[in-house]
């Protein structure tokens, strides 16, 4: 049964990845290309300065894949890979949640789960460590930045699970509305505390175009919303079907 | 022509499912599902960046745009 759900989640995730690719291609790639041109111009200026100072020009990065490959089949592979992975995780979450959210039907359960997933796995980590286009990060700090990003993601997921559990404890005592709001309040305080405690990262060059940065981050939010949203809606249909077909 | 009362709400997505799948039945699959997700996120989001399983930059460069646009730290 759960295996069936995971298979369906996997397929739904692949379709969601293709949709996310469409969004990325349309709204994300223009900003990526501007950022790469900015980077090339900076590298060229550095090389020219080195030559003028009588030093050898720094070696250029070797090109492994062309921009066409990176922004085409490479981007598609990345989106579909992430989508398929999320789809499998989503099926497991649905298996746990379905029938355990009061009277909530399978469709709304699925959409609500997608909302929780988007917020916990993407939005909250991204608010602390926002997505950056190429040329913004220092290659030397990649380990540090990756570690902090995944730490924030883990803390965010744990906070959501904790808050949902807390809500379960509070609702019988204080009622649905008050209990839910109280759990939400505790959740927000915890997230705010993590935001304050964890170190900030800002490596955006001062001359980097602000509009490009804004467009890039908005595109990233759009991509993740398409990914999670389409998984939630599609799974609410075919996942619900698998759950309904379950032999009692 | 689905106009009668019964055929309006027949989508399974609308049905509340009171019978949950037992936790012990989900658990082994949960580990499997989370593992697939972690693997996908690792290769799209971090391989040949912070850590490397394969040498070189082939994986990193191939999924490069997706890595940036999905919000993972890169360069
Ligand atoms: Zn990069």
Report on the architecture of this protein.
The complex is a heterodimer of chains A (248) and B (75). Chain A is mostly helical and 248 residues long. Chain A is built from 6 helices and no strands. In chain A, helix 1 packs antiparallel against helix 2, helix 2 crosses helix 6 and helix 3 crosses helix 4. The longest helix of chain A is centred in the first third of the chain and has 51 residues. Chain A starts with a helix and ends with a helix. Chain B has 75 residues and is mostly helical. The longest helix of chain B is centred in the middle third of the chain and has 23 residues. Chain B is elongated and about 50 Å long. Chain B starts with a helix and ends in a 6-residue tail after the last helix. The N terminus of chain B is likely disordered. The chains are: A mainly alpha (248), B mainly alpha (75). Bound molecules: zinc ion. The site of zinc ion has 4 residues of chain B, from helix 4. Zinc ion binds next to helix 4 of chain B.
Task: Describe, in short, the structure shown.
With 248 residues, chain A is mainly alpha-helical. Chain A contains 6 helices and no strands. The longest helix of chain A is centred in the N-terminal third of the chain and has 51 residues.
Descriptors for this entry?
heterodimer; A: 248 residues; mainly alpha; 6 helices; 79% helix; 0% strand; globular; B: 75 residues; 4 helices; disordered N terminus; binds zinc ion
Unreliable stretches covering 5 or more consecutive residues of chain B: 1-5
**Mean pLDDT value of chain B:** 84
Number of distinct beta strands of chain B: 0
Number of strands of chain A: 0
Bound molecules: zinc ion
Q: Using CB atoms under 8 Å apart, which protein chain pair has the greatest interface?
A: A-B, 75 and 50 residues
Uncertain spans of chain A: none
Q: How is the main sheet of chain B built?
A: none
Protein structure class of chain B: mainly alpha
> Percent helix among the residues of chain A?
over 70%
Q: What is the helical fraction of chain B, as a range of percent?
A: 40-55%
Assembly type of the chains comes to heterodimer
**N-to-C SSE series of chain A?**
HHHHHH
End-to-end C-alpha gap of chain A:
11 Å
Mean pLDDT of chain A: 93
H-E order of chain B: HHHH
Principal-axis shape of chain A equals globular
Strand content of chain A: under 5%
């Amino acid at each position: 049964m759960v295996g069936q759900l995971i298979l369906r989640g996997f397929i739904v995730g692949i379709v969601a990845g293709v949709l996310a690719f469409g969004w990325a291609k349309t709204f994300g790639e223009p900003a990526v290309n501007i950022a790469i041109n900015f980077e090339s111009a900076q590298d060229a200026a550095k090389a020219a300065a080195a030559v003028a100072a009588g030093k050898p020009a720094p070696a250029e990065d070797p090109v492994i894949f062309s921009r066409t490959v990176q922004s085409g089949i490479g981007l598609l592979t990345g989106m579909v890979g992430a989508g398929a992975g999320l789809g499998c995780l989503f099926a497991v979450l649905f298996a746990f949640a379905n029938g355990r959210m009061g009277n909530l039907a399978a469709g709304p359960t699925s959409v609500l789960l997608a909302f929780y997933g988007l917020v916990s796995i993407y939005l909250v980590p991204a608010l602390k460590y926002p997505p950056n286009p190429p040329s913004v990060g220092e290659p030397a700090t990649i380990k540090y930045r990756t570690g902090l990003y995944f730490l924030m993601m883990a803390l965010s997921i744990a906070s959501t699970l904790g808050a949902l559990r807390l809500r379960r404890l509070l609702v019988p005592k204080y009622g649905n509305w008050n209990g839910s709001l109280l759990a939400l309040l505790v959740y927000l305080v915890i997230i705010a505390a993590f935001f304050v405690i964890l170190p900030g990262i800002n490596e955006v060059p001062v001359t980097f175009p602000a509009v490009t940065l804004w467009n890039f981050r908005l595109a990233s939010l759009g991509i993740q919303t398409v990914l999670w949203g389409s998984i939630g809606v599609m799974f609410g249909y075919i996942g619900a079907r698998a759950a309904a077909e379950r032999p009692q | 022509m689905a106009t009668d009362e019964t055929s309006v709400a027949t989508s399974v997505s609308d049905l509340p499912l009171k019978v949950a799948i037992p936790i012990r039945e989900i658990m082994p699959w949960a580990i499997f599902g989370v593992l697939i997700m972690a693997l996908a996120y690792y290769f799209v989001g971090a391989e040949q960046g912070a850590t490397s399983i394969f040498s070189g930059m082939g994986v990193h460069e191939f999924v490069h745009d997706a890595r940036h646009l999905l919000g993972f730290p890169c360069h």
